[in-house]
């Protein structure tokens, strides 16, 4: 099966990490910060934020201006600062400090969409979920795994065509693949481990 071959080859090149090994709250806040922001920028902003506010309770009581200063490099930081503070408040006060481990509850949090919720399930809890960001949406279509127009459609279709054992792996694999080789512009096709399986190549 082509999908199994693609996943198998990418796993050899990018050995998967240990899913569920990160604190769910940190995953949640970092993923909210990552929206429309490069990964390296998000990582540095998250490090600064969690170095000062080490718990959900501390972040819920933080001054929004101080949060803005810590995350000022991320896109829409003025919107995200009060948002992450409110998320922390809800979790600390209403949810007794526990991040939800189901997508329906996660989607009720401000600023949390399906990608963010699924990232929390995968990286925070180690659960089987399909987290679709721009890399996953673009590359899934480029390879011909799916034929979709939006990330939401891509998530639905990947849940249908991917064996469940691959769900939690697809985000990490395609993000790393997209950053290194299968770039939006100027992909390094000569280095691609799945070049012979790529639908875009066959259609040229």
Structure report:
By secondary structure, the chain is an all-alpha fold. It folds into two domains: 2-16 and 131-202, Helix-hairpin-Helix base-excision DNA repair enzymes (C-terminal) (Endonuclease Iii, domain 2), CATH 1.10.1670; 24-124, Endonuclease III, domain 1 (Orthogonal Bundle). 59% of the residues lie in helices and 0% in strands. The protein is built from twelve helices and no strands. The chain has helices at residues 2-13, 24-34, 39-52, 56-60, 64-70, 77-94, 103-106, 114-124, 134-143, 151-161, 167-180, 199-202. α2 (24-34) packs across α3, α2 (24-34) packs antiparallel against α6 and α5 packs across α6 (77-94). The radius of gyration is 18 Å and the shape is elongated.
Number of DSSP helices?
12
Mean pLDDT: 94
What class would the helix/strand composition place it in? mainly alpha
Give the C-level CATH assignment of the largest domain. Answer: Mainly Alpha
CATH level-two architecture of the largest domain: Orthogonal Bundle
CATH level 4 superfamily of the largest domain: Hypothetical protein, domain 2
Number of domains: 2
Distance between the termini: 22 Å
Tell me how many strands there are.
Answer: 0
Q: Assign the CATH topology of the largest domain.
A: Endonuclease III, domain 1
| Helical percentage | 55-70%
Radius of gyration: 18 Å
Uncertain spans: none
Beta-strand proportion:
under 5%
Secondary-structure element order, as H and E?
HHHHHHHHHHHH
Shape descriptor? elongated
Biggest sheet layout: none
């Amino acid at each position: 099966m082509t999908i199994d071959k693609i996943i198998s080859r990418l796993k050899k090149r990018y050995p998967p990490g240990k899913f569920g090994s990160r604190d769910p709250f940190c995953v949640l806040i970092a993923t909210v910060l990552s929206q429309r922001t490069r990964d390296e920028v998000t990582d540095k902003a998250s490090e600064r934020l969690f170095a000062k506010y080490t718990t959900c309770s501390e972040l819920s009581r933080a001054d929004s201006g101080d949060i803005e200063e810590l995350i000022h490099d991320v896109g829409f930081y003025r919107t995200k600062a009060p948002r992450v503070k409110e998320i922390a408040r809800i979790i600390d006060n209403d949810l007794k400090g526990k991040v939800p481990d189901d997508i329906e509850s996660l989607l009720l949090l401000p600023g949390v969409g399906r990608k963010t919720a699924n990232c929390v399930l995968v990286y925070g809890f180690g659960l089987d979920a399909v987290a679709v960001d721009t890399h996953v949406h673009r590359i899934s279509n480029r390879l011909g795994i799916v034929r979709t127009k939006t990330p939401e459609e891509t998530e639905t279709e990947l849940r249908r065509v991917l064996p469940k054992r691959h769900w939690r792996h697809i985000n990490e694999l395609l993000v790393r693949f997209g950053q290194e080789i299968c770039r939006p512009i100027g992909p390094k096709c000569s280095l691609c481990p799945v070049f012979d399986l790529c639908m875009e190549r066959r259609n040229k």
